[in-house]
Specification:
This protein has 563 residues and is of the alpha/beta class. The protein has helices spanning 6-9, 22-33, 51-63, 77-84, 101-110, 133-144, 164-167, 180-193, 200-209, 214-228, 234-241, 246-258, 261-273, 278-298, 309-319, 324-341, 347-359, 367-376, 409-423, 441-451, 453-459, 481-487, 490-504, 522-550, 559-562, and strands at 40-44, 90-94, 121-126, 150-156, 171-174, 197-198, 231-232, 364-366, 397-399, 463-467, 471-477, 509-515.
Length: 563
């Protein structure tokens, strides 16, 4: 007898042999047992998960000569012919090569004839999504009301390409990817039957490389038997399949976590010299850090993750050294690098840049902490317009490297002094109320500054207009309309009112207004414009850093900025 490859030799012959599709097989067995089989079935799912095998088993069950149960005998003539593909009542059609309207019309004419031997004439159309729209339309009426002796079974890997009018006329079953654990168990069973000695790590690597396809796993096992003979070891699988040794992935990960850039580059060089493509390397790293992220989050592996005892120990030790924020930061950088690598020729350089950036990430802080630090040092740019930004709730992290410049509060204090000195000369302040005598603008500003620097910065551009026992009116010039809007937020206004009540000892409220005229001399206007330009220059490094971290770019320049 000629040699049979493992996927054919160990193809499921009864429903109980199908791996990982228990819900589907149970439903089909019950439908046969209760004689409630549908006119048409649509089997959807990725490659190598059992769609065609289940279609054949169902066909054998319906036409088996020896039994009317739910288990084909696989001994009668009908079962053997279906297994070998020679049964004239069970027709397997390739949808990719028989996709025209004429072929479907011929099929539609043939369904009128009764089966030759069995009880049903069954049409199995593989890759049905390859049929043309005209072919689908030609099949509609027959599919909805076929003769009682006809059954249709469609199989596809791309269910979204099947017309809704076809899907609605079928019972749909979605086949799922087979779990790594189930593939490992099946491979061990087959290796035992084939009298093959295969170590634990080798089985795990083959199962992971199959991407949920048992057929792919059996093809790789067959290939490994040809390469290694009766004994398969982990290193042989690594060499033949061209995958990266897990020890190298763990070595690279340890170096990235510890910040050892030299070890990172040397390990990467070794991988590339062994023929590994940079894109393949970064995909392996993404999968590795995805595993770490899951472990860090739920403290256990998911169904698609199977590890040896040695790998489990390494992972448990590794997640103790790194926070979930750092893992997300690493995944974010690796994913961003992967997208860039697809559009360049020399992808190795981008991978090296990304890995060094990760290794030298330094202390990681959350976005909320960064905003707090900016809040406390916002006096670096007293005249710049500070627009409030809404932060996402995601635990994204960024690197905070730059040292903030020295405090320049002295200049602002000088401006505050000017306001205090001019208060007595301001004709608009109401001094008839004794509370106005207790009013000290500079003291209020200093108290606000001690509470929240950003509020102090905006308030320093204003000037007191009117003071009495129940209300303090603070005015902004038209050039500072944005400052007024910021100060009118509930949080900022509460800070100012708290300081006013503390200094004056009364329950006065605060109101902000815009003034038609407030120190608009030509020299002052030029000075303000000059300061705004200086503020923008000071903000440039921070803006460029933010653009680098978040991958942003300028999409619009305001008229004011362009002047």
């Amino acid at each position: 007898m000629s040699y049979q490859i493992l996927p054919q030799k160990y193809r499921p012959q009864v429903f109980e042999d199908v791996v990982g599709q228990e819900t589907i097989t149970k439903t089909l067995k019950n439908s046969v047992l209760k004689e409630r089989t549908a006119n048409a079935y649509l089997f959807c799912g990725p490659r190598g998960v059992g769609k065609t095998s289940v279609a054949r088993i169902l066909s054998k069950t319906l036409n088996c000569e020896s039994t009317l149960g739910v288990k084909p005998c696989n001994k009668c003539l009908s079962c053997n012919e279906v297994t070998s593909g020679n049964n004239i009542d069970v027709l397997e059609i390739d949808g990719a090569s028989n996709n025209s309207v004429d072929e479907i019309r011929a099929l539609r004419e043939n369904v009128k004839f009764s089966p030759s031997k069995g009880r049903f004439k069954i049409y199995i159309i593989d890759e049905v999504h390859m049929l043309s729209q005209g072919a689908f339309n030609a099949l509609l009426k027959t599919l909805e009301e076929p003769p009682a002796h006809v059954k249709f079974i469609f199989a596809t890997t791309e269910a979204h390409k099947v017309l809704p009018t076809i899907t609605s006329r079928c019972q749909r079953f979605d086949f799922k990817r087979i779990s790594t654990k189930s593939i490992v168990e099946r491979l061990r069973e087959i290796a035992k039957m084939e009298k093959i000695d295969i170590d634990e790590k080798a089985v795990l690597l083959i199962a992971r490389s199959s991407d949920g396809s048992l057929r792919d796993a059996l093809v790789m096992l067959d290939q490994m038997i040809s390469f290694s003979g009766d004994k398969i070891i982990f290193d042989d699988v690594v060499e033949l399949l061209g995958v990266i040794h897990s020890d190298k992935i763990f070595e690279m990960s340890e170096a990235l976590i510890s910040g050892e850039t030299k070890c990172v580059i040397e390990t990467l060089e070794e991988m590339i010299n062994n023929g590994k493509d940079p894109v393949f390397i970064i995909n392996c790293l993404i999968m590795h850090y995805r595993d770490l992220m899951v472990f860090k989050t739920i403290s256990r592996p998911t169904a698609d993750m199977v590890f040896s005892s040695g790998e489990m120990e390494k992972i448990e030790a590794m997640i103790k050294k790194i926070s979930i924020e750092e893992i997300l930061y690493i995944l974010q950088n690796l994913s961003f690098c992967l997208n860039l690598m697809k559009s360049v020729v020399f992808s190795r350089a981008l991978l090296e840049i990304s890995l060094i950036k990760i290794a030298k990430r330094g202390a990681m802080v959350s976005l909320e902490n960064i905003i707090d630090k900016i809040d406390s040092r916002i006096d670096l740019v007293p005249e710049a317009k500070q627009k409030k930004r809404v932060l996402p709730d995601s635990p994204s992290v960024v690197r905070y490297e730059e040292e903030v410049q020295k405090d320049k509060g002295e200049e602002i204090d000088k401006n505050v002094q000017d306001f205090s000195d001019n208060d007595s000369e301001n004709d608009e302040i109401d001094v008839s109320d004794q509370n106005s005598m207790k009013f000290n603008w500079r003291a209020i500003l200093n108290d606000v500054k001690s509470k929240k620097m950003s509020v102090f910065t905006f308030l320093s551009a204003a000037k007191p207009v009117s003071v009495n026992s129940s209300l303090v009116v603070v005015g902004f010039s038209k050039d500072h309309a944005f400052h007024k809007e910021v100060m009118e937020t509930t949080e900022n206004k509460d800070v100012v009112e708290g300081s006013v009540k503390k200094i004056m000892g009364d329950s006065a409220n605060v109101k902000f207004t815009l003034l038609e005229f407030l120190g608009d001399s030509q020299e002052k206007e030029k000075d303000v414009i000059k300061k705004k330009g200086q503020a923008r220059e000071k903000m440039k490094p921070f803006v460029e850093k933010a653009m680098d971290v978040f991958g942003g770019h300028v999409i619009r320049e305001t008229q004011e900025d362009s002047e």
